[in-house]
Structure formats: C-alpha cells, structure tokens
C-alpha cells in the first residue's frame, strides 16, 4: 500500500513551504491578489521538497494557506 498518505509534522511542512516562497517570492503577491491557482503551484513545489513523503494534500493545502496569509 504505497499510496498511503502520511501525516507530516507541521514544522517540516512550514519549512518546506517557506523554502518554496523564498525561491518564488512573487507567490505571496499573487496569493494576496486573489490568484488562488498559485496554491497548486506552491503545493506541487512543497511536495517535491518533501522528497517522496506522501503528505496529506488537505493538510498541505491548509498549512500553505496559513503561511501565505501571515506573509
């Protein structure tokens, strides 16, 4: 069952998201301008940074939203 999602601790998730934002600073501006499709991009990049950990997409999306709102 390699399709199982793992709950990843939020601090690992936040640091991966912060790294994506650092590499793509325009993401925050686009998010604040209401371009919510940017979440998909951030999510893809975050999943890549997590290196094969199949994190729960709902959890990842929620944390991305929190991080971006606090920028």
In whole angstroms, the N-to-C terminal distance is 37 Å
Order of helices and strands: HHHH
Based on Cα principal axes, name the global outline.
Answer: globular
Pairing-aware structural class of the strands and helices? mainly alpha
Low-confidence stretches: none
Largest sheet: none
Q: Please tally the helical runs, counting DSSP H or I stretches of 4 or more residues.
A: 4
Backbone CA Rg: 12 Å
Q: Report the strand count.
A: 0
Helical residue percent? 55-70%
- How much of the residues is beta strand, in percent? under 5%
Topology (elements, then pairings):
Elements: H1 10-23, H2 26-32, H3 38-49, H4 57-69
Question: Can you describe what's shown?
Answer:
- The chain is an all-alpha fold and 71 residues long.
- The protein is 65% helix and 0% strand.
- The protein has 4 helices and no strands.
- The chain has helices at 10-23, 26-32, 38-49, 57-69.
- Helix 1 (10-23) crosses helix 3 (38-49), helix 1 crosses helix 4 and helix 3 crosses helix 4.
